[in-house]
Amino acid sequence: MIPPPPAATTAAGPSFSTSHFRAEREADWIAFDELLTKLERRGATALSSEELLELPVLYRATLSSLSIARATSLDRALLDHLEALSMRGYFLVYGVRETRLNRLRRFFLYDWPAAVRAVWKETLIIALIMLLGVMTSWSLVAHNPEWFYNFVPAELAGGRDPRASAEYLQSTLGHGKAAGDEETSGLHVFATYLFTHNSRVSIMSFALGFAFGVPTMMLEYYQGISLGAMMALFASKGLGFDFGGWLFIHGTTELFAAVLSGAAGLRIGAAVVFPGARSRLQAASDAGRTAGKVMVGVIIMLLVAGILEGFGRQLITDTALRYGIGTVMLLLWLGYYYVSRREDAT
Amino acid sequence: MTAAARARERAAGAKKLRQFITPEGVDLELKIASSSMRLGALLIDAGLIIVTLILFTLLMIWTGIASRSSVVISIWMLGAFVLRNFWFIGFELGQRAATPGKRMMGIRVVARDGGRLTADAVVARNLIRELEVFLPLTMLGLGAAEDMVSGWTILAGVAWSLTLSLFLLFNRDRMRMGDLIAGTWVVMAQRAKLDSDIAASGETAGTLRFTDAELSVYGIFELQELERVLRGRDARAMREVADAIRVKIGRPVAEEDESFLLSYYPQLKARLERKLLFGKRREDKYASD
């Protein structure tokens, strides 16, 4: 080609010009933009099958326009628009590969139990730590009831302390049927309070995990301590078996969830300290994803525990039946998590 | 501003760009959202959560008075719990991967490895938030509520928890603790409207012709600054720019600023784009022509 013609002749225009390029492709961009807006607003079901088929075609056309525009055009507004449009398109086209229902199904069938199985070592460690906490406070409170006040905060105890009579303690276990409607509704609120409190503690013990897991272990130990103190208190008044049932019906689920949340936190802490062959950043994000799945499970478990606590415990007052339900729940969880299944490889 | 300062400024802007190559082989050049954007989004979300909580509380009080049932208290506690923990998770799991606050600031969450943003990553990054946002507040609240904690203990606690919260200031990619653990980034996702091509409209409007020597004084950076001014339509800015160009190319003030710029811009753009086609990219006026 002949070197730059005088600027005065540009109005006539060379055979390729960015305004021609734009005029030719603009319709595609607008169509793509409209499609994306529709997709964002109302999801994939809002698109007809023609529109769905058109989507990847328009996406590729836009990406190719972006490449050409970057090489030839100096119009900042045009470049910005194409970049933003391509990015939006990329995340929508590649974002979701399966339906929401499918994802849910996979989570419950494989991902959740697999994630829990992956943290089995951490689960054992945390369970042992909690057990240690229970034994510590049990032995201390059994020898000297005064210790109880150091272990259990007053708002959590709700009057259940060494000064309380055996009858009062009995009534908190839901055996005193004589207690009126007022009394049970009070317990109902108390159960909800416990649920939200437990969830917060679980989330905390997970989130604290990246500080090398140390605060997580301390938190779990502390949880064990308040549990042990309660058990020692009820046992000292001869209500150990009843308290066991009161605790067991929801406790197997709730404590299991607490242990798992600690295990998830510990997993992250361990990955940061001992990343192995991967980079520390990579190890942390791998551990974080496993732990994230476990935490979704933990919250579901705590919801189940909350329902068992709020309703099951109110309606079922027979101690043996309470033990039965608690055991069945424990077996269900254990079977769900640890019995291996065939399609795991996927 | 000197050339060196400009180059530094542009390098600083470029540092925030991260390569992000789609399977089609196009680099999308994601731009990391700044910490002030993140703070803005967080404040908007916090405001919205508080407003929602207040409305929800009023509704519950009203229902409670009407029904005289203590179940309402349980529902309120559960609702507050869900609002606090699932506001962020719920919105970030949506198609746009952004909470209302993030949407307003034009940012979104993206998986660092370029894959899709999974639910577990969103959950992990937001449960850590509990620690980053609420721990310093809890520490402060604890200090205010209980006398047994001394002032220094509170200070140490708040300082410790703040180093966690401000973690994003200490790394290049502006990752929170939660982003680090979930393997995510927060990037700019501003929508840009498709504005009309000034050059196309200018070609008909401009009657002025410039010589090649008059057009060869500027590069791409100046062209795009000129475009910004023309799109801004601010009379004073246009006057300043037009005067600067007139001085530079030695033209007398003979016509309206806007029509002067509207005829200069398309010709400069056409010249630079033609050079671009021949593989010569002149970044700014300091680069050789």
Protein architecture, described:
Chain A is mainly α. Chain A folds into 2 domains: 17-93, no CATH class; 106-338, no CATH class. Chain A has helices at residues 18-42, 49-72, 76-95, 100-118, 120-143, 148-151, 154-157, 166-172, 181-207, 214-236, 240-273, 280-315, 319-338. In chain A, α5 crosses α10 (214-236) and α5 (120-143) crosses α11 (240-273). Chain B is mostly helical and 289 residues long. Chain B has a two-stranded antiparallel sheet.
Short account of what is shown:
Chain A is built from 13 helices and no strands. Chain A is mostly helical and 346 residues long. Helices cover 63% and strands 5% of the residues of chain B.
Determine the fraction of residues in helical runs of chain B and give it as a percent range: 55-70%
Output mean pLDDT of chain A: 81
Uncertain residue segments of chain A: 1-13, 176-183
Largest sheet of chain B, in brief, is: 2 strands, antiparallel
Number of helices of chain A: 13
Largest interface: A-B, 82 and 76 residues
Main beta sheet of chain A: none
Structural class of chain A: mainly alpha
The N- to C-terminal Cα distance of chain B equals 21 Å
Per DSSP, what share of the residues of chain A sits in E-state strands of 2 or more residues? Answer: under 5%
Order of helices and strands of chain B: HEEHHHEHHHEHHHHH
Number of strands of chain B: 4
Shape of chain A: elongated
